[in-house]
Amino acid sequence: MRPSVFDSEPLSLVQNIVVDVLVRYYERIARKDGIEFNTRLEVGNDISIYDADLCAVLSNLLENAVEACRRQSAEVRFIVIGMKQTETSLLIRMENSANAHLTRRGEGFLSSKEEGRNGYGLNSVTAITKRCGGEAEFLLDDKTREFTSVVLLKWSK
Q1: CATH of domain 12-154
Q2: CA distance 152 to 88
Q3: Residue 137's CB: how many other CB atoms inside 10 A?
Q4: Residues near 119 by Cβ (< 8 Å), separated by ≥ 6?
Q5: Residue 9 DSSP symbol
Q6: CA–CA separation, 51 vs 77, rounded Å?
Q7: Where are the chain's structural domains?
Q8: 79-138: per-residue pLDDT in tens?
Q9: Is 34 helix (H, G, I), strand (E, B) or coil?
Q10: Could you give the count of Cα atoms lying within 13 Å of 13 in the half-sphere of its Cβ?
């Protein structure tokens, strides 16, 4: 039997190509590793943020989330990402399961790649967010071991 166009994935999740490509890429990686991956994306193609900045923010958040899930022994491993665009901002909220090895240092978290050092990924996200006039917050719920990233990127109309 020949493959049908209806057998393939939809062409896009959202209109914004950067968001679409990155979220699909990390979704495939996560699902391949048995990580539950859910999205709610309300993003158009009229975001006034440099593609490189948007790419850096999303790829750092998603890569960290996948890595955190991979390090878990728990049965329930998940990533939930939501994005909402307004006329002058983009709100990104991501939650993921995290293991007990995630360690805070001051307002940041230690890198899981380089022992004893703060991670560069979240620092990069924070720097980009500040440059865009927005805010970034990263929270770890010590009871549930869930990690939450909230990033607000802003631009002028």
Answers
A1: 3.30.565.10
A2: 10
A3: 13
A4: 64, 108, 109, 110, 111, 112, 113
A5: P
A6: 29
A7: 12-154
A8: 999 999 999 999 999 999 987 565 555 555 554 555 544 457 888 999 999 999 999 999
A9: coil
A10: 19
